[in-house]
Amino acid sequence: MTAVVVTGAGSGIGRAVAHSFADEGANVLAVGRTDSKLAETARNRPEIRTLVADITADGAADRIAEAAAAEFGQIDVLVNNAAVVTRAPLGGIDAKQAREQVETNLVAPLLLTQACLPWLRLSQGTVVNVSTSGAVRGWPMNSVYGASKAGLDFLTRTWAVELAPDGVRVVSVAPGPVETEIAENAGFSPEQIRRLRETQRAKVPLGRIGRPEEIAWWVRTLARPEAGFATGVVLAVDGAASVAM
Ligand SMILES: NC(=O)c1ccc[n+]([C@@H]2O[C@H](COP(=O)([O-])OP(=O)(O)OC[C@H]3O[C@@H](n4cnc5c(N)ncnc54)[C@H](OP(=O)(O)O)[C@@H]3O)[C@@H](O)[C@H]2O)c1
């Protein structure tokens, strides 16, 4: 049976990814910092086990890989999904928040992938990095977040080449705006979220915000054996937002 590790699985896209794999019978280790959110993800789905872990903590990568291996005896898919975002213009960037974004969005996925690598080599598995389609052009107020995600896409391309001889694939799914708690978690007020959604809708040629399930479907699909010739790819799933003039 397929064994999957999903970070940031207590909400939004991560929860939808965990459900998508579990609903097809895969075993899932759902990782996040908040026990109650993970419990909600796992509710009525015995295929989903949960692990409370801050992916930026010392030793977290080894702890997560060891927990998955102990629970399932294998790791076939790693989904690096957890991330944090803090908006600020250059001149107003707080050092602690900048470090937190780089640590969470770039360094932690790197260390977790490394910790899972022996298992991924054994299974000839797949790494799916969740980045953002916004990181392909200048993005005011989001320079640190965008840089962390552009860096993650660079890891995808480089690791795809490094790991190809082992049969391990590495891909990125790059969402556009998706209806999740990300803005709330970034400290936006309800009124700011309403205005953000309006702006986002106007920028997406399809004229709407995406749903977490629409991102999860691509994560799941790219991890399938039938997608076996796709590696090193960054797939924008964003209603054409990143290709519009
Ligand atoms: N929603 C969008 O519009 C959008 C657009 C483009 C890309 N994305 C990307 O999609 C991914 C999922 O985001 P989302 O929209 O689903 O946002 P979300 O609901 O805020 O989910 C992020 C998850 O990451 C977890 N997390 C954060 N820091 C963590 C840490 N240090 N250790 C472990 N878990 C941590 C959070 O849970 P805890 O706080 O409980 O740990 C949360 O469940 C992210 O990579 C994001 O950058 C989202």
Uncertain runs with pLDDT below 50, 5 residues or more? none
- CATH superfamily name? NAD(P)-binding Rossmann-like Domain
Any idea what the CATH architecture is? 3-Layer(aba) Sandwich
Bound small-molecule species: NADP nicotinamide-adenine-dinucleotide phosphate
What is the spatial order of strands in the main beta sheet?
3-2-1-4-5-6-7
First-residue to last-residue Cα separation:
44 Å
Q: Which shape, going by the Cα principal axes?
A: globular
Q: How much is the average pLDDT? A: 97
Report Rg. 17 Å
Provide the number of structural domains. Answer: 1
The portion of residues forming beta strands comes to 5-15%
Q: Summarize the main sheet.
A: 7 strands, parallel
CATH topology: Rossmann fold
Keywords: Oxidoreductase
Organism: Amycolatopsis silviterrae
Enzyme class: oxidoreductase
Protein name: SDR family NAD(P)-dependent oxidoreductase
Protein described:
The protein is 46% helix and 15% strand. It has 245 residues and is α/β, with parallel strands linked by helices. It has a single domain, classed as Rossmann fold (3-Layer(aba) Sandwich), CATH 3.40.50.720. The longest helix has 29 residues, at 95-123. It is globular. The N and C termini lie far apart (44 Å). NADP nicotinamide-adenine-dinucleotide phosphate (NAP) binds at residues 7-8, 10-14, 32-34, 37, 54-56, 81-84, 104, 130, 132, 175, 177-178, 180-182, 185. NADP nicotinamide-adenine-dinucleotide phosphate is lined by residues 7-8, 10-14, 32-34, 37, 54-56, 81-84, 104, 130, 132, 175, 177-178, 180-182, 185. Keywords: Oxidoreductase. One of its GO terms (molecular function) is oxidoreductase activity. Pfam families: adh_short_C2.
